[in-house]
């Protein structure tokens, strides 16, 4: 059944699983070893990985993928509100609804290609966002975001147990899904998604998508209908986004409209490109880097900087604090912008290309293409 | 209680044990669950507060001013500087040696004025940096979202600038407290002044930001004006961040309305007001009366953005630096000396909230959240710039005076943008907490 | 003996043979790529001043790519090798610089610029130095173009567009002309007309390379021929040699 | 009827801003083939040229603090001190005058941006172009935020253009009430002027003809001995000036803040694509069309039937047009389709 995976691939999955599962320990020295951020790494890793199945393999740049994230979140929270706090149905609903949404949007948007496709997806996502923010408030609770309330029916839970005082927590058969258990739940989801993605990359279907990317026209001339393949890829990547959205709700039962805004769609594009388009690991790394910056850099303030530079004489310290202050705290966006520019200018293939270069320099590879099996799939964005 | 709960607890234990085995690091093995331990109770010689303010996005300037106020409050709590409102505050529990003898430290985060980002950043401060209390915010959506999170995690949330009725209404939480006034109180405060200035025979046209805060404000003001005998011509919802409002403003011209009420805040307010003036609404005569514009919620920082357009326009505000009571004076002096500019209303409410939390801990004698909540509920105090104030236990809303202000026609300084027309007293603004529904929920401590 | 050429100065070893002069136009072992695909695989040949050379071969042999490389357009990318025109190192230049040295390519799809009139297309050729025939002179030689001077150029027939493409090249002071499939897709009557024009160009003494499917037509005008296959030169010789060599014609030209 | 006419005016005015931004964006895309996400930032920088000019000439001279006052009284701009009434009227006219500042500044910014960054991305994937220019847009706006803060900074139109024009009376329509702010009318006329100037430049000058030719087929233009990239650099500078001028003149309508560019970015991309990638008339047409439709969708009568339509109308129109006209209103085949 898994005949298309080589021994190296299995080792890759195993290695990946280990790296993910030990991350609470390994990331602590970097200040990232706390559940909320670790959860975000996994969730956005899934989101970016799914996005990459569409963008990386077929070259179709969707600028509205955040819509599926939002739909997944809303569906999951509604599952908590209506049925049960158990996360399994929530995840299923999230993926399912995002999938249905993706069928509709994908069917329409894939009638066009290139930037016209991008704008169509952007338009759909922006419509979803604007409506969710205002007119659809009965479903989405508008700006505040959809939250659990004490009045929720929760019919399945309430049929079996008397609700306690206060809001219930999301749980997996009794294990509350916040903090580290929540992280491990997301981590397992990430590992499963990674495995699935690897399989897609190695499957004939994946090859077909790559072929579409490299020469759609030629395939059209030969009378080959590419759209079913594209639509399938679109739906799969929409479902990944739905899963990510539902996991966001699992770890924090709230769904806000701004998850669907174009900036959120833009973010996943940035993550993917930053990490390395079309590579297996790249998007996950990209997601990690951006979330890390957002969480860690924005938390720096002048006081922390003062401490950091306390070894300097007064005048030099002031200059140092002022200068670094430009890039952290409220200036963290500036850092983000600068990093994007540096990466794109100097590392067109994203972080993965950087790693590949380091690997080659260390003598690990004797030439291009001799790197790790997953990076061999790396190719520049078209 | 049904026995099934018992069963569920059983599952929970097994599950949690599994979780512990999996997640062995840090938090799960940290200390036994003692009787009165709540989340992040400080164990060393410092106590960490989490200041969660918008540092990017449209409210970044307000966030910066809030942060200034927080830093000032920390200074005063630690016994540095001139003490500001600690000297005028009627509760004398604070000694200027930190809180309960622990030096106050703080961590900061950027809410980006987005619920998700705000919750992420609050979570970081709680999970990673050990903040025992979260405060801040410059929008109701964010306040409600963070308040919900804090309830789940058992961390006290002292709301910053949030004006929606929901924050202490239908979305109120046991762990959330608001010092700032709300849309309902704005309406009540404005009523008599509107009657006095514009009479009882008016036709009002509402432009309302299309989200929860806008709606509650529209509703509150509409109720007030209709009670005065005003007619509501139309209530039009405008998209948030529309930028150009011309297409919403032009219909006002021929609608027969003689009052325009802008239920906008922040950048939206600056834009819609600027453009309304541009369309000549202020110079218009309708039904033999001067056309008037009302902005129910004012802030000085926004007034600055609107420039001269603000002149003569009525609105309400929680507090203004021009107040001449001792407390306000002490605060303005202290803030002005530190930063060279007077504090905004957002800065004021954030400063007060920090002091109130610290004071509650002192009075409770512990950081244990349920006890601190108890100390805050139904707490009576004065000397914080809004006269005698009650932290109402039923909905965690402060009952205090608020201000009706007018854009200053003749300013004495760069910051002298708002003129206080009337200080509306606490009795007038007190309402029945039941009207907005909601449920505070339990105060039982959470470990984290 | 001759004057030292640029090649010598740059350390190139040139064996002085009996011709005793470096060729007017010289292509030395050029290799060019479209992205990853290796298209031109080490092509070398020389042309003397005023000579006409046919570049022949089957579809996909790399003829057009070679011409494009010689004209220094951005694709295919020249990875190694040298191109010399009258002592100037074209391989170091980009298309617009090569054009300033007198290189002109008339591409196979003519590349008449849409949205511009016939006259504007001609003016465009004379925006920069060196200018060739004045536009009035061009109109004398191409009365059809004169008739249509204010018409949008792409609305003309294929033959007329081909005329314009050639005329546009003549509007520049050219030292070498690359004609890529000048007869492709044209009716026989028009082909004759174009052929006449090419004949004229030849008579003026402009060094020319013709790439053409119709080998016979091309060879009629040529002094020499180069045959390419899979990106490499498989034969060099006079036009007559090709026409006489049955096997060669059969194997590479299908005639 | 009055309402409809006024909404058309609103639409034209809104459309003027969209069209100006989209025009520059299309110019850059059509020539350099670069998808420039920093174009909105150029609009914002233009607006801040006006702000900066105003700041410079109104640099406050602080009167001494009176006894007992905590904060100093309002300051007087030094231009008024130095030049009296002339100074005052220059301050009054600061927005239009700052055009003189904006043109060279924006040209320099444009040239520097193209030479320093964009030129290295001609042959890179569109995704790379988007990313790098997006990064640049963030950097630019954060720098502006650092210097000017996050709050909107109101700019006043010259006093003589305050208030409204009674348009109905111009046409002797006494039974109608159509008034419109002077400055918005001026903005509309200004945009027509700029658009006209750009088109005239492209249509009636040899330089413009070369640029047009380059947009169609840059390879052939190169074969004719023209260094088209150098000319495109100038085009980038022009696009940047157009965006900047649009920004300068917009400041009295919308008090600018650092985020202004991002607010317009997505919208202007929709406009460009609806117009058809690379088509200048398409961009202008789409700008005005979407502006007018947006205004109509905001009318109470329309919103009453379709609540929320005003929030999505632009996107809805974009979807409809792209599905019925594959390459937008006036797009050409093969541009940006793969």
Automatic annotation (TrEMBL), chain A:
Annotated InterPro entries: ABC_transp_permease, LivM-like
This protein's GO CC annotations: plasma membrane
Membrane topology: Multi-pass membrane protein
Spans traversing the lipid bilayer: 12-34, 41-63, 83-108, 115-136, 182-201, 228-248, 268-290, 334-352
Keywords (A to Z) from UniProt: Cell membrane, Membrane, Transmembrane, Transmembrane helix
Superkingdom: Bacteria
GO MF annotations, alphabetized: branched-chain amino acid transmembrane transporter activity
Location in the cell: Cell membrane
Name this protein carries in UniProt: Branched-chain amino acid ABC transporter permease
Organism listed in the record: Zhengella mangrovi
Automatic annotation (TrEMBL), chain B:
An annotated GO BP: amino acid transport
Keywords on record: Amino-acid transport, Signal, Transport
Keyword Transport (UniProt): yes
InterPro entries, sorted: BCAA_transport, Leu-bd, Peripla_BP_I, TAT_signal
One Pfam family here: Peripla_BP_6
Segments forming a coiled coil: none
Gene3D superfamilies assigned: 3.40.50.2300
Residue ranges of domain Leucine-binding protein in the record: 46-410
KW Cytoplasm (keyword) present: no
Family: Belongs to the leucine-binding protein family.
The name this protein goes by in its record: Branched-chain amino acid ABC transporter substrate-binding protein
UniProt source species: Zhengella mangrovi
From TrEMBL, chain C:
Keywords from the named record: Amino-acid transport, ATP-binding, Nucleotide-binding, Transport
Any one of the GO BP annotations: L-amino acid transport
Entries under Pfam families matching the protein: ABC_tran (PF00005)
Annotated PROSITE patterns: ABC_TRANSPORTER_1 (PS00211), ABC_TRANSPORTER_2 (PS50893)
GO molecular function (one): ATP binding
InterPro entries: AAA+_ATPase, ABC_transporter-like_ATP-bd, ABC_transporter-like_CS, BCAA_Transport_ATP-bd_LivF, P-loop_NTPase
Limits of the ABC transporter domain: 25-255
Domain of life: Bacteria
Entry's family note: Belongs to the ABC transporter superfamily.
Protein name per its UniProtKB record: ABC transporter ATP-binding protein
Source organism: Zhengella mangrovi
From TrEMBL, chain D:
Keyword flag Lipid biosynthesis: no
GO cellular component, one term: plasma membrane
GO molecular function ontology, one term from the record: transmembrane transporter activity
Keywords, alphabetical: Amino-acid transport, Cell membrane, Membrane, Transmembrane, Transmembrane helix, Transport
Membrane-spanning segments: 16-35, 42-61, 90-113, 125-144, 185-211, 232-253, 265-293, 305-325
Cell compartment(s), UniProt: Cell membrane
Gene Ontology biological process terms, A to Z: amino acid transport
Entry membrane topology: Multi-pass membrane protein
Pfam family membership, one: BPD_transp_2
Family in the record: Belongs to the binding-protein-dependent transport system permease family. LivHM subfamily.
Protein name: Branched-chain amino acid ABC transporter permease
Organism per entry: Zhengella mangrovi
